[in-house]
Fold this sequence. Notes:
This protein is α+β, with helices and mostly antiparallel strands. The protein has one domain: Endonuclease/exonuclease/phosphatase (Deoxyribonuclease I, Chain A, 4-Layer Sandwich), CATH 3.60.10. Helix content is 27%, strand content 25%. β7, α4 and β8 form a beta-alpha-beta unit. α2 crosses α3 and α4 packs parallel to α5.
Amino acid sequence: MPSNLSVVTINVNGVRAAFKKGFAEWVVEHSPDVIALQEVRAETTDLVEIFNAIEDLQKDGTKWHILHDSASAKGRAGVAVISKIAPAASRTTLGPKSFDSAGRWLEVDFKIKSKTVTVISTYVHSGEVDTPKQVEKYKFLDAMTKRMAELRKEDGLAVVVGDLNVGHTELDIKNWKGNLKNAGFLPEERAYFDIWMHKQGWVDLGRAAHPEVPGPYTWWSYRGQAFDTDTGWRIDYQLATPKLAKVASGYKVHRAASYDTRFTDHSPVVVEYAI
């Protein structure tokens, strides 16, 4: 019988702030097996403290394993993979040695039965047109593309999850016409997604679950009425290898019931995998 592995990706926009706004209660209610975080913006000791508190709330004996890669600049970026299953291996290197990917790419292998499942938590730069920020974003996307090609050649069970800070198509942004010249929807950025999905063969599980419909969006600005009017972006993804995509189900964006019940400006994205 297969084992169901639930994987959630969440940009917490600062894990300590999210914890104060209801993140712990969400974890207790949904109890995923693997939690991929982006924009942790904290120390590993903070994650340990938070998940110790979550263990106390769960009261079911769950023990969380924490892997965290912090950014070079304190208080910026940071990715983590937190799991009920003990990790078998992890890697953080991405791109050439001269390239600083700290806090943005964390690969974790899990041994489930006789199979290896790799979950990658990634946080792509937001970028800004005609600035060094956009240059760094393209460097990161180049490094991602090379590594994702390597993972596809291995032909295993892998999923790249996280805040990729790009809407792939017009269906992924409510106001796409107003963002054609902005970072996050530039043709050059979207071309990477074409390579990943159409040339390398990765499967966008969100679009596979919701073909030819707008969204479902995963991020809304805190400004104005963006959340209430659903003027959002779909920038949080789960991209699976074909073998893993075949056993994926239950894709869901956990949109908060109201603006004031959000613990971050992103929504958790959950997928179940039958391993």
